[in-house]
Amino acid sequence: MRAIYKIARLELSNLFYSPVAWLLLIFFTFMMGMTFAGALEGFARQQELGTRGLYAVSQNLFYSPKGLWPQVSQWFYLLMPLLTMGLISQEFSRGSIKLLFSAPITGFHIVLGKYLGIMLYGLLVVGIQLVAVVVAGYAVEFFDWSAVLTGLLGLYLLYGLYAAVGLFMSTLTNYPIVAAIGMLALLSLLSLISGIWQEYAFTREITYWLSLGGRVNSFIKGLICSEDILYFVIMSSMFLAFAVLKLELLRESCSFAGKAVRYLGVFVIAIFLGYLTSRPVMKVYHDSTYTKANTLTQASQDIMAKLDGGLKMTTYVNLFGDIYNTTTKGIKRDIDRYERYIRFKPETKMDYVFYYYADTTTEAFKKHYPEKTFLEVARDAAKLQNTRLGKYLTPEEIAKEEVAKGIDLSEEGYRFVTLIERESGQRSFLRVYWDMRRVPNETEISAALKRIAMKLPCVGFLSDYEARSMVGTLNRDYSHMVTEKTNRESLLNQGFDVRDVSLKNNPKILDSLDVLVIAEPREPFTGEELDILYRYVESGKNLLVAGKPKTYSYLTPLMAYLGLRFEPGMLVQKPIDEFPAHVMLCTVTDSARNISRLWKNLYQITHRDERRRYSLVMPGSVAVEQVSDKGFQVTPLLTSRDSLAWNELETIDFVNDTARLNPLVGERAGVKTTMLGLEREQAGLQQRIIVLGDADCFSMGEFSTSRRGIRSANGNLIMAMFDWFSYGELPIDVSRPSAIDNALTIGMETGATLKIILQWIFPALLLLIGAVVLIRRKGK
């Protein structure tokens, strides 16, 4: 150890007597000051001038994509080759390596001494970064110390790996510049190696573990994972061992095969340790962020805790997938999407089935692929995606797989889909969606897992008498928000079970429901059917009733049973721009604000300032009012934004005619209620009922309509309604604590002063110290 210490001390002194080390340190300090202090000054100016509120300042300063830590990791990539290129190569070029070899020390002492010296220099680099952390801790209220310091730890580990790689490369050549170029090439290889041989199961784990790309990002984001720590330790040790071998082999005669075996032995040991430490069951995590942004929310953790026994996720990938796709080379990257879940259930098995299938009988297929067999088309598609068709099951083989698994991929449109299976037999599909994100997020993944972990609310949609259908494709139907498998926010993908209900054919199905939806039937119910509905209400289960101006009378008996009525006529308001007066804009009432978390969110976005306000749009509605007390607690949920809306009884053509208030015919102006919520204790249940005056507000036609100048929140409305119906169980609550570091304790003037100090004075001070040291050294 004494020899290692002496070499380390000598190496450290050599660094401080080197202009390169001083210039790199000064450049690093200047860049850090410019990046960090510039951002801090900008936030101070923003806060003092009040142009925009601050949020999560610690993250924005340090570990956001434009924060300081990601920038530092990039600087290390460029600066470390210059710093390490001469560690040992200069010994060769000067001839001083002979003195080291003649001394009573081994290559182990030389390499460890050099490495310790460069790591001590790294502590100075960390100290400079720590200055920025301390300044931020002084300037930011409730600064997130733990997350920021976790990023600093990751950067030091990255520095250590770069130092080990650079030291090894400097043993391979007498020319420092060649060592620097070689190091850049090797680091590039380590960053890209995750994409090599990924289609082969044997090498997939090896090359993916070897990859350096993104390893430090988890630290920067505030997550400490044992795999990442051990990766840096193992890889640094491997390159240091390579350097020791190189120096030792210079001292002894050894055949090429003997040398190769030694190097290969070190590599195999490193790979074995890496594979072992990367197993999910071996990993340990710590999320150091205040909001626990790198961890599953508590709701998702509770779901994972209920999934006892085995769990398997089988992903079916069609070569001709149209929403989202991957190849055999992308398996590990796709598995990474479930890393947070595997953390809580490391025994989860992940499997992938690749196949090719397309409907060759359609006109679109024939038009795109004329005069080609399906096999030829599949080969071309495989070439286009840079994959091998031999890895994919044929249509006949995937058909056998469907039979063996008891699934029907045609129901999923042969799209990218994941089958989740419990050891006990429960199953659920996890899909991809037609939106910007495509892949499922925590909300959808947890909903799919919750479906197999416990019984979830079952929603039935009445289909008798041409009521709005949950599977129909007409504008008046509800399939988009209920059963559409490619819509992320459909009830089906949010975890609800949905069923078609017919009072004529199978009235007993009501016994299995938790919520019944009756939306604008176009004929009256029979007395027997009304008795069935009354019994359902008395059972204490939840109900949603939606009417329309022309057909609300068919719901009158049921409304009277609830103590309500639809007010005659069509609601109108003062016309908005060029839109007809019967296009009602509604807002959430104060009384509905706190009935659930999603109603609170809906309240907030409908009560913003006029420029950013959202509305609930009802294109043809009737008002709802209470006429008798049936034992319910009645809460107005939505009312008209226009305080002088009225029930129009005379106007029929709202496009070519102008609606005018006429009190003489019974038209009454005022704030109109378009949705009521009813709640009571009934049959041992907390019964909840919603009655709204527009069955169109969450129809397919309404969701496909865009109105200039009107911001619609109707998509949020259906989620808020069914969140209330499910007592907050669905959609999954993946909300996190809000950040608390949302203000600075400094003003613009202090921010500008700190920028001058960190960007100019601090580097100038280092320049002065470096100049004095180098001049004194030259004088001696």
Which labels suit this protein?
alpha/beta, 27 helices
Q: Which blocks of ≥5 consecutive residues have pLDDT under 50? A: none
Mean of residue pLDDT?
Answer: 90
Alpha plus pi helix count: 27
Q: Structural class given helices, strands, pairing? A: alpha/beta
Alpha carbon gyration radius: 34 Å
Shape: elongated
End-to-end separation in angstroms reads 30 Å
Sheet having the most strands: 9 strands, mixed
Order of adjacent strands in the largest pleated sheet: 8-7-9-10-20-19-16-13-14
User: What oligomeric state is this?
Assistant: single chain
Number of strands: 20
| Range of strand content | 5-15%
Helix content: 40-55%
Question: Could you explain the architecture of this structure?
Answer:
This protein is an alpha/beta fold. It contains 27 helices and 20 strands. The radius of gyration is 34 Å and the shape is elongated. The two termini are 30 Å apart.
Write a brief caption for the model.
The protein is of the alpha/beta class.
Helix-strand blueprint:
Blueprint (H helix, E strand, L loop, with lengths): L1 H15 L2 H31 L7 H7 L4 H17 L4 H6 L2 H6 L4 H33 L5 H26 L5 H17 L8 H10 L6 H4 L2 E3 H26 L4 H22 L7 E3 L10 H9 L4 E8 L12 H5 L3 H6 L4 E7 L7 H6 L5 H11 L10 H11 L11 E6 L4 E5 L10 H12 L4 E5 L16 H4 L14 E5 L13 E5 L7 H12 L3 E5 L9 H6 L2 E3 L3 E3 L10 E6 L8 H9 L10 E4 L4 E3 L6 E8 L4 E4 L20 E2 L2 E10 L2 E8 L7 H4 L10 H12 L22 H32 L1
Parallel strand pairs: 3-4, 7-8, 7-9, 9-10, 10-20
Antiparallel strand pairs: 1-2, 3-5, 5-6, 11-15, 12-17, 13-14, 13-16, 16-19, 17-18, 19-20
